Amino acid sequence: MPKSGIAGQPPVAPDPKYWFPAKRYGWGWGLPVTWQGWLALAIFLGLVVAGVFLFPPRKALAAYIGYVAVLSVLFIGVCWLKGEPTQWRWG
To answer: Among 43, 46, 58, 76, which is least packed by CB within 10 angstroms?
Structure first.
């Protein structure tokens, strides 16, 4: 049942749908709960695997580590924008 609004105001809209729920314990996000979240995770993992061919770790380890670091920062940004607000949780 939606929450009632102030007199004459429409009810408050329910919380938006998050792609990534907050973890039950600790800080961060859990596995995706929507198809968009699963797609974002699949793209991230696919790009990490593609990086092995673009920057072979045996020949260009620093480039590969930098590539994965940039991808990780971008993916964390997606989680931050589309995930449930997170905080330290004891359970």
So the answer is: 58
